[in-house]
Amino acid sequence: MLRCVRERIRKLIVSKKKLSMFVDELLLSELVLSYSPKSEQAWNHRRWVIKSISANCSNFNEILGKESELVEKIAERSKMNYRAWNHRCWLISYMTIEQVLYELKKSRSWAALHVADNCCFHYRRRLLLKFMENQNSVEETVSYGHNADIVQALKDELDWNETLIKRYVGREALWLHRRFLSMWILDSGDASYHSKEAISMHHDFGTFLQNELCLLHSCSTFVDDFVDVQAQAAYSACYILWLKVQIAKPLESKLLEKIKDVDLKTLLDKSCPERSSLFNYFMN
């Protein structure tokens, strides 16, 4: 209770001062976070400061960039810091499309070195969603060039994700990220909602499925002595089963036709025998 009162008094005092006081508050909370990187109060205070200066700060974009770098620095030494990553996701609402593209490019190298941390991939998904929201916004005029950029960004993300899956075996965060990307591909089949450029991303749905089944084949080799290889086989089989559940009925026949040569049920039962009854339900 006393802590909440102190925070309210501090906010009241700072809000009546000039812009430099808000900058000092950012420095102070950064010092607090260096000792307590998961402090909910410190992260909340930073958001209050940023929101307070967003309308009348000439170098606001520079502050956003430094905030993103701060989260990355803290996440490096404080693993699975959800509060820090939530703060970074919150910053996206203030970013321009150019900043979103920059963040997608800049955060890729960090994500590639921390493939077990789902937080960084969740951040990338939020960036991609911001990008797509800009495309579908009624209030904004989006050029064809931005549409093309969105398509290319998603295609690059899929290709990069596949590279990481093959390089780092048995990392669930990579497969969860692929589900998000694949969901967008599935939705892009509805031309009434998405742009025609999106549909051409993989030429047609059959090509996309063929690529995913090739990925399944490359990830379904069992070596009993290696737990990560078994996990890779389980994740790949579960991913294909997930695709089957997500696909709309008119497109389901294409998937069933392509997986008929794959003994998916045996692969699932072998990789996760404790879930065989659940798999049987979705296979039917």
Write the layout of secondary structure elements.
Layout: H1 2-15, H2 19-35, H3 40-53, H4 60-77, H5 82-91, H6 97-113, H7 118-136, H8 144-167, H9 172-187, H10 196-199, H11 205-219, H12 227-246, H13 249-259, H14 264-271, H15 276-283
Quick rundown:
This protein is an all-alpha fold and 284 residues long. The protein is built from 15 helices and no strands. It folds into three domains: 82 residues, no CATH class; 89 residues; 82 residues, no CATH class.
Structure report:
One of its GO terms (molecular function) is protein farnesyltransferase activity. This is Protein prenyltransferase alpha subunit repeat-containing protein 1-B isoform G. Pfam families: PPTA (PF01239). Helices cover 76% and strands 0% of the residues. The chain folds into three domains: 82 residues, no CATH class; 89 residues; 82 residues, no CATH class. The protein has 284 residues and is mainly α.
Number of domains: 3
Q: What proportion of the residues is helical, as a percent range?
A: over 70%
Multimeric state: single chain
Largest sheet: none
Instruction: Sum up the overall morphology in one term.
Output: elongated
The assigned structural class equals mainly alpha
User: Over the alpha carbons, how many angstroms does the gyration radius reach?
Assistant: 23 Å
Strand content: under 5%
Give the overall average pLDDT. Answer: 80
First CA to last CA: what distance? Answer: 56 Å
Say how many strands there are.
0
H/E series: HHHHHHHHHHHHHHH
GO cellular component, one term: protein farnesyltransferase complex
GO molecular function: CAAX-protein geranylgeranyltransferase activity; protein farnesyltransferase activity
Protein name: Protein prenyltransferase alpha subunit repeat-containing protein 1-B isoform G
Family: Belongs to the protein prenyltransferase subunit alpha family.
